[in-house]
Structures
1.
Amino acid sequence: MSPARRRINAYHSPYTYYGGIAAALGLVAFLALYYGTTWNPYGAWVAAWSGVTLLFYGYDKWQAVSNGRRVPKLVLHALALAGGFLGGWAGMVVFRHKVRQGEFWLVLILATLVHAGLVYVWFVG
């Protein structure tokens, strides 16, 4: 495959596409919360990424129902691990999305435990 063809394929990759949109939305939301509220940085971070994760769960559910272009599960997992675990849990409940897939339960439990550990270290330790 030629380098030009690889570039085109990478540009149209759903990982690059949705991952880039998620990163941009997450960072903009974080900066808005960080500078627009009196929240501590970690609270702003978790709220921003949780909001983005909830949006992506809802969008993916809508795409699943309408047989459209889906958000890769790796992107959904990365969002949860980045701090959007609350949005991931909310997305499962609100949209009834990914509730039968054990992999999503495992990633959300892991992300919750990791962030609980961060809260402990940040505020207690």
2.
Amino acid sequence: MSINKKIITVCTGLVLAVGLNSTQAALMNFSVMGDIVIGQELYSNIYNLSAGDTVTLTGTFDDTGLTSGTGTVYFDINNPANTFDISLGAFTESSFNDISYASGGLPAITFNNYQLVDMDFLTQTFNSWGLGFDDQNSMYGEWRTDVQFSPVPAPAALWLLVSGLIGLAGFLRKRE
């Protein structure tokens, strides 16, 4: 067998092995809504939100930690690909604002069968635990358990690899 055929055989085997692996992790976009239960009715809050207003938690994470949609996803310094933002009216809180972000372990979101069961996040002005959240003063809200997921589109790396291999094979055939 010539060296060219060996190279093509090895490359083909590599492509098939990578393509057939069903345990590959994927980046997932997610979105969760939260409803303000108590807002500015009694006292003003830093976010100027009132009862009935909606907040949105959106982000991206690597789904390696989830098994059948169940598990905890960490958004700390040890997991830089995992990020989220919470839109609170005109304000935004981000995962890296958590007071424990640099030491690791928090913030974290726990899912059970792709449903939200716990959102742990703490800053100087925002606190989320379980399915509740507040501004540590006068606002209180609750997260909905329904989570919207969508895969992050991967670049066309596989197609690029395959077309490169085809081009390499054509180049090698032309040289023979």
3.
Amino acid sequence: MYSMSLRQRTQILYTPDISLILGRLGLKPGFKVVESGTGTGSLSVSIIKSVLPSGHLFTFEFNEKRQLSAKQDFENIGLSEYVTSTHRDVLSNGFLLDDKVKEDSIDAAFLDLPNPEKAVPHAFAVLKTKGKLCNFSPCIEQVQKVSLAMAEQGFYDIRTFECLSKEMQSSNFTYDSIYKDMNDVQ
């Protein structure tokens, strides 16, 4: 629901994609997560709520105006103590962050940015053993590049998903009407 109320600064993720991402990352309370491509913060809020009350999200955005707006949004909705919002190009500077994000200290990482294959080594550096990495890519060429970079870095069980949502139509009927129709056919 939060996603629907946002003033969009970027293209956002909606419930079907968010649910798949959170589930595949296996997020739970206490997890520490890095995210690159904060954007509007739609996924960020869902990540934060998944790791509460003892977890933390470290989110990175290369566009300073978007980063500051998202940081303000986190404060406005009362989540700022569970998130560290940083203006940074992780492709060049990685995820290490003072004493907060160190090598082998992160449970899960999420990438939603241009050229994500360049961020894979940086994510690998901060992930714990058996930590999970998820990348959101709009095109198959990007998926192929990221999958190759992940395999080269030592990731395994690399999978690609397409999440489609389809509203179903239903009709009201009774079993009596079904049996009547069947008897009419005979």
4.
Amino acid sequence: MTAIDARVVLEERSIGAWMRAAAALRARGYDAAIDFQGLFKSAILARASGAKRVLGFSIWHLRERGARAFYNETPEPDARTPEPPNSEPHVIYKNLRLAQRLIPSIDLDAPLEFPLLVPVSAPVEELKRVLGGEPFAVLNPGAAWPNKRWPAERFGEVAAFLRARHNLRSVVTWGPGEKMLAQLAVAHSEGAAVLAPSLSVVDLIALLPHARLMVSGDTGPTHIAGALGVPIVAPYGPTSAARNGPWDPRDIVLSTFDECECRYQRRCHVEARWCLGRLPSPEVMAAISARLEAAR
């Protein structure tokens, strides 16, 4: 994080906290503010910073379109950031395109690199000791949105398959409120999976480079794995992989987005037709074999 000179933290959601944050930003006299979030609140804060240049997405690429009123610069559309009706650019490219408006030397066609420092983690070292040096995959059945979760029992079936077919143990990770999901996956793994301890984001960054594979949906750990170059197989449902999926073309996304009736919703209102629930384990297993072969 050495490229970050200062942080201004919004510690609460009160008007007073916002005013203090805006004052702190104005006091620094920034030349430019970039809003990568595309929300009213982030756009207002960018404008309140006092920066002469306030950059944000075009109206078609904003999560809240009214935020456009607070920007004085937006990138022009191109082949990979089109406007309607084809307006689903990948978020990585969309963000780089916005940054290029400020830094024209950014090469949008250069290979992506994420220079993450891999830390030493005591929980991860203990987990590796428990595995006895065996190669392993990481399975992550959780997600903040219940609608993004492929059934935990099927993650267990995948773990059993990885052990039987590819001689890989599985480490099942979990975040806040997800431990029961992880335990359910382990219970259905026929002894092939172990439950990870509680891991911070830093611990996860320490763990993932040692994994042969990551199986996870559209959630933070998947994108951390992608940044670290870990091979990924990802079940996607209510979100578009073209917009939010792994960047490496060798990674495999199994998407039910086209048939999903609850797109971009935390919970599916048509439970009997829940799209990710219709993705069978054998399809994921076949994708895993293909991705492991491509990683050789």
